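Subject: mismatched residue count in predicted assembly?

I count 1091 residues in my input, but I want to confirm that the predicted structure covers every chain. Input:
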Amino acid sequence: MKGSLDSALLSALLAMLCCPFRMPLLLSYLRSFSQAPVQRLFWLSCAAMVLAISSLAGASRASAQLASIRGFVSDYSDGEALTSVNVLLESSGGDLRGSITDSDGIYSITRIPPGVYFLRASYIGYTSHVDTLRLAAGERVTLNLSLEPLETVLDELVVEAEPESGAARVTAGQQVITPRDIDLIPTPDVSGDLASYLTALPGVVSLGDRGGQLFIRGGEPSHNLTLIDGMYVHQPSHILGFYSAFPADIIRQADIYAAGHGSPYSGRIASVIDVKSRNGNKREYDASVSVSPFVSAVQFEGPLIRGRASVIGSLRQSMIRQFAQQYVPQDLPYTFGDAFAKVHLIISQTSQLSVSGLYTYDTGAIGLPSEDRILEEVGWKNYALGARFVVLPRALPFVAEVLFSYSRLDTNQGPPGEPVRWSRPEGFSYAVNMTSFYRRAEWHWGLYWRAPQITSSLGGIYQNLEVGYSRRHKAGLYIEPDFYITPELKARVTLIGELFPGQDDKSILESRLRLIWARADHEVSAAAGAYHQEIFGLNDRRDATNVFTAWRSAPTTSLSRAVHVLAGYRYSPSPGLELAVEGFYKSIGNLFIGEWTSFPRFTTRLQRADGRVIGMDLRAEFRHGRLYGYVNYGLSSVEYEAKQSSIGLWFGQDRLRFRPPHDRRHQLNLVGNMRAGLYEVSARWNFGSGRPFNLVYGFDGFVNMDGYQDIFTVPDDQRVIYGPPFSGILPTYHRLDVTVERRFIMGSGSITAQVGAINLYNRRNLFALDLFTTERSYQLPFVPTVSLRFETR
Amino acid sequence: MRSLCFLAVLAAALLAGCTESVDTRLRLDRPFSLYGLINPKADTHGVRVFEIQSNIMLIRPEPIDAKVTTVVVQTGARQVWQDSLIQLADGDFRHVFWAVFRARADETYRLDVTRSDGETAWAVTTIPGPVELEVLEADTLRPGVAIMPVFVHGAPPSMPRIDVEYIVVGFAEGGSDPIFKSVLFNYAGRPKQQDGGFLIEIDMVDDYLSVRELFDQDDSVTNDVIDLVEIMLRVHVGDANWVSPIGAFDADFLVEPGSFSNVENGFGYFGSAYVDSVVFRPPLALIRRAGFHVTGKN
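Triage response: the counts match. Full output below for your records.
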């Protein structure tokens, strides 16, 4: 009976999965209906969720005679949660049951027949925890474990172990990044930053070492959902491309979904960067101070209540004007910084609470100064504050996560100190995410409510002021079971329903699927899904020097939508070698871009566009003793198609099909790391083919001759006489960065010294081409760096 | 062999990767963009001349490399236009070439703007004939409508703009001070062709609703009493080419180069046009029917 319930639910959910594959067809089908059938469909999905949740409650009653065990696993030395710990329960008869801890260190083993069990929790680099348990019928045991780190971690252990993260360890678009991965990428600072790692991923295109924009698998920066501890961070990159809001020191783990992300991630159509911060040391105080030509940083952590509550904080401030600018033969008018703090509290054996806050700021001028033109500055500030409560209710077989956060971004552009355009997306977010375990499935389900609002004032030298305000509410429900169909095959089926009260599109139903098949050294994975987005960032991409993002709400009748399909294969021919290939396709609809116009002014008039992204990533990762390296290659093609009747007057056709400026077709990254004695050498070579840009015939003036005009007094406009959109190609980009690092142990502390070079062979990589003045700005030339870091630990 | 192929591909990639040059400009032979007109009702005519530059248009006071002439096609009479520098309200400089002469209806003028290297942009325009505006008697008996007819006698080749300007008076909120307002409506595209000319029907009911909406939005003015002082009709008569390709003169569309242009080897528009106007006050019955208040006579 239970088996048939399983099958019925699976069948019902799989039936819903027709959606991603036939989404365009389904959408047009839905549009052809009146609103009422769409609503019926939504309520049907709600009913399905209620049915599923009820079945789980029933399952809870049915399994009353079986025991369960769950708890948190942490590092004994500092209390930090340990991810991917293998927790095994072995019966006296030899039956095995197991669980792997999640990013909070939570494990859960259910449906255990009463009896005596041998428990073993093991993790690489830690002493295994072993225990013998006697479980009674219906007993629900909460057992928190602390694993003690081994005195020395042998290199061989690292080699032989199954790594939890890695450059080739991509599964259905998802990659887990740990601070250790980030540290392998050479940067001008001893402390790494997530941005450096992201720009070394295939399919991730950055405009260069300034500007702070990441395009992931064809998506625009505003199409990426970036979270830290569940809080939205609208513009996470700093203006200098090495840095983001996420220094490696505060990161416990970052999950990157280049496509095919699941249900807790809603409201963005391209990708997800989900950063989970560390909780901080609950045993002793640690601090570090680092200084480099680009950034100085202070990081601290320690117990507030020993063993129960901790605080971690990080402060960074750019030092470009003070140091780098003194010897780099290029204007670097950039200032940025960030601050992060988190308090983590173990409330009880079954519940934990954390409160996090993030602040970032950036200011800088991207173009070049000119006597005829005021050099405009762009700036942005992120604010985020959130609380996260994780509980293992004693009476219910759930793991519950409650999130509450407020995020805000202030972005502006204008003459220094006098911004004339600004936009401010902000809003509260509430979410409840539940995980329960039933039979062979792990059920994720939850609900959320978000209320993003955008205030903007988008005017400027060439355009009248335009003040805007919009507020949207949305409430969502999702259910996402992980079915373990066979020991090798796992399916994650997602169904999401969203309500938009007071809007024309009143509801949305979306479904997603992830399939993973793994046997021995082989893994095949695939994902597909439908996505939508209500707010978006508008950039004037006609001019590459313009990185100002104006946030707008999508028209309520036509949200931006995307369908992702991807499939990959991973193979480990030997313990130290991993190979992966993944192909992807994204179809994007209702993509709003700035209207194409010959006025050389920032335009906020929207132009609807559709697009498609197709591509493939190849990755190879190598580990052998003290040697580590990886190579990845990304091939992709992005194409937008927009219809605008005015452009037909000049270009002869009103349908524009063009490669957007982030369509970098080829990308190659080589990263190497070697430890030799007390030294660690890292190198990275990055190659990217040229990106499209606009070619220009020239510039003139324009008088709207809408009748008789007094030619001696009538005002006019400047005009750009464009060639076909994005028909030029910039030169290729490549650069070699190298660092050599050594750590000196000094009593209870240490000093890490790093010397390095950015752009070792001084390649003149073009960053921006000012179409209006033909002036060019180049990316960083050869820059030698020296960096120091003092640590108390 | 495979190794050789691989090395060749690698070498080609490296060579391609070494290229740093990039050309941002497409070749365009057109030297100028021109905006101007000949007004048969005036003696002085002007044309604003923009050099098509490789840099964003930043016009400096120095003379530009352009010689402007007109020739009357029928007679061969040639006129050289003078350069002048004007400064717009925003402080920018512009070059307006001007000439003094009286143009006659049906004369065809060819304007040439020539650079010293011989590159020339030119345009041709034929002077439109005169029109006469006649305010016709309105039908004050038709219920629910208030149409004020005006007839344009003649054969205007084009009427790119027709302004109907209402001069209305209201009163300040809470006071009796009269506040005059001017409200403009564009009737371009609405005249009906008839024998001997065009009929313009001014829909005073529709226009009154718009006027009232404006008053509603203005908190300083009461909308209880809106009186119509007079209506001014201005008809812009243009040459035969003065027709928007999209029906309306929307700058966001027409800014696209060449979209509304009669300039050969260049961009812009050089035509001939004049404005004829008439001022009148409609019959009181019509004013009332449209919704306006007639002060002191209600």
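Residues 105 and 127 of chain B are 5 Å apart (CA to CA). Marking this ticket as 'not a bug'.
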